[in-house]
Amino acid sequence: MTSTTLSAQHHGASAFSWTDLDAWKRAATNTFTCLIGCSIGDFGALILIQIYWPSTPMLLTMAIAMSAGIFTSILFETALLRIKEGFAWRRAVRVAISMSLISMLGMELAANTTDMILTGGGAVPPSEPWYWGALAISLLVGFLAPLPYNYYALKKHGKACHHAG
User: In sequence order, which ranges of the chain are alpha helices (DSSP H)?
Assistant: First the structure.
């Protein structure tokens, strides 16, 4: 620890910095892991709704897709915590559920809103190249939206939601 950090801690002040490259890398890894989990359920739900229930109202479609994304993210994180970190199943589930809902909701809302704007609310079929371009842009926005929050939470609490730390 630097003397500035020690001094700030000694006086009760918070020595927060946005310049910690290691924390940015860890926050990016955590955010990417969450993006994978959320995307599985989110885009799966969107595709199913577009194929089988195309007249579903857009707000309901977004709510279902976001819920499915959060659910699959929790399942994905539970499996990772169990397999990679060696957590017991019960603890893995608890940790996965206690992950930052703010981050997941922000990710889901940003990605779905971007997708809705770019594709006109599902008006572009998956057979069109623009569908895949819009998907890539939506995923990028979904990744970038919660990244600063995840960095902040990692720095503030000294731990990441996706790791045993």
Answer: 3-10, 21-52, 58-83, 89-97, 101-119, 129-144, 147-157
Q: Per the domain annotation, does 34 fall within a domain?
A: yes
Cβ count within 10 A of residue 72: 20
Least confident of 61-75, 120-134, 136-150: 120-134
Q: Has residue 7 been placed in a domain?
A: no
Q: Are 24 and 151 in contact (CB under 8 A)?
A: yes
Q: What are phi and psi of 135, to 5 degrees?
A: -60, -45
What's the predicted TM-score (pTM) here?
0.78
Q: Does residue 12 sit within a domain?
A: no
Tokens of 55: 């007249």
In a domain? residue 8: no
How many domains, in total, are found in the chain? 1
Over the stretch 5-42, which tens digit does the pLDDT of each residue have? 333 344 444 578 999 999 999 999 989 999 999 999 99
First to last CA, the chain: 19
- Kind and range of the H or E run holding 165: none
- Domain range spanning residue 119? 20-157
On the 0-12 / 13-18 / 19+ scale of CB atoms within 10 A, 18 is: exposed
Centre a 10 Å sphere on the Cβ of residue 28 and count the other Cβ atoms it contains: 15
